[in-house]
């Protein structure tokens, strides 16, 4: 028995209700009968049929560069999935294997309504997608110094939050622990910019930047260099929690400790950071707010009204979690 027969209506009416077609005067009682019948029969609408009926796919494709897989990235993808679902859209992510990867086979197969580009993509590829009727939204970070990212503001605020905290507890000479993973340059650059901006706002010297590898002995060498400056660096903003843990390992190897010998602040609030001894002070993104902003950009590109949400100017995108290392 199909949904139409179960609800006692025509198949056209079922199509109007299940595809939520606008401008159709379907009585609420009839709509309810169709929805109840569909639920009782376990009906799941065909994505292809919905696309034909509505003239638009409900799929949003996110093209992600080769970022390191992390707890924070997983949480960000889940936040995007939830936020798109509130708009009746389905989010699908794809990791690009190379910066110049030809995306045509991908979008030609999945036929998305919109594509989010989280990194630089050659303009000719963008033009081809738009020519095919796909809305394209660029939500990128500045992996290339000459191309500012549209989302840089988020990570600038993270770096600013790190520095403002350290300055507020009395530190006047800051260092910055840069990651040795080239894949995260797009995030590291605006974070460092935020630290520099905070130092400048307080009349302090720019942070002394050193790359800190995930190796205790080499991290210890960097700690020696910071402490050997005149005046010495007394606090460090690390690119993320993993880089901060490397700094802490270097301190331990030298018989030193945080925060007495060097205060340290990370980013991401990874679960292990609260369990370390000493526990790591860190900054956490508001990933749900970030997801809402990206969804708003996509919904706007699709020509629909975006759901209300905090703007870049009035939200608090980064939250400091103070623990033992400061």
TrEMBL record:
Keywords: DNA-binding, Transcription, Transcription regulation
Stretches the record annotates as Disordered: 305-326
Superkingdom in the source lineage: Bacteria
SMART domains reported for this sequence: HTH_LACI
Domain HTH lacI-type: 1-54
Pfam entry (one): Peripla_BP_3
Family matches, as Gene3D superfamilies: 3.40.50.2300, lambda repressor-like DNA-binding domains
GO molecular function: DNA-binding transcription factor activity; transcription cis-regulatory region binding
InterPro entries hit by this protein: HTH_LacI (IPR000843), LacI/GalR-like_sensor (IPR046335), Lambda_DNA-bd_dom_sf (IPR010982), Peripla_BP_I (IPR028082)
Name of protein: Putative LacI-family transcriptional regulator
Originating species: Nostocoides japonicum T1-X7
């Amino acid at each position: 028995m199909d949904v139409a027969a179960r609800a006692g209506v025509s198949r056209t009416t079922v199509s109007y209700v299940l595809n939520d077609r606008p401008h159709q005067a379907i009585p609420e009682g009839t709509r309810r009968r169709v929805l109840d019948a569909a639920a009782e029969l376990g009906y799941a609408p065909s994505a292809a049929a919905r696309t034909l009926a509505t003239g638009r796919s409900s799929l949003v494709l996110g093209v992600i560069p080769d970022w390191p897989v992390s707890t924070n990235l997983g949480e960000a993808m889940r936040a995007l999935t939830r936020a798109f679902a509130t708009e009746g859209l389905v989010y699908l992510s794809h990791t690009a294997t190379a910066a110049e990867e030809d995306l045509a086979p991908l979008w030609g197969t999945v036929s998305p309504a919109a594509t989010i580009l989280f990194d630089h993509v050659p303009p000719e590829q963008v033009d081809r997608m738009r020519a095919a009727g796909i809305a394209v939204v660029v939500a990128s970070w500045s992996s290339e110094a000459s191309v500012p990212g549209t989302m840089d503001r988020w990570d600038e605020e993270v770096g600013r939050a790190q520095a403002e905290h350290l300055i507020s507890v009395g530190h006047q000479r800051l260092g910055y622990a840069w990651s040795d993973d080239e894949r995260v340059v797009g995030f590291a650059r605006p974070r460092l910019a935020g630290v520099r901006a905070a130092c400048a706002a307080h009349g302090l010297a720019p942070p002394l930047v050193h790359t800190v590898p995930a190796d205790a002995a080499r991290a210890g060498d960097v700690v020696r260099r910071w402490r050997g400056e005149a005046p010495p660096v007394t606090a460090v903003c690390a690119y993320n929690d993993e880089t901060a843990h490397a700094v802490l390992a270097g301190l331990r190897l030298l018989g030193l400790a945080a925060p007495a010998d060097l205060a340290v602040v990370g980013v991401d609030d990874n679960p292990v950071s609260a369990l370390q001894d000493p526990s790591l002070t860190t900054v956490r993104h508001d990933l749900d707010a970030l997801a809402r902003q990206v969804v708003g950009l996509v919904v706007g590109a699709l020509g629909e009204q975006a759901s209300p949400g905090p703007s870049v100017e009035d939200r608090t995108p980064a939250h400091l979690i103070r623990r033992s290392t400061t």
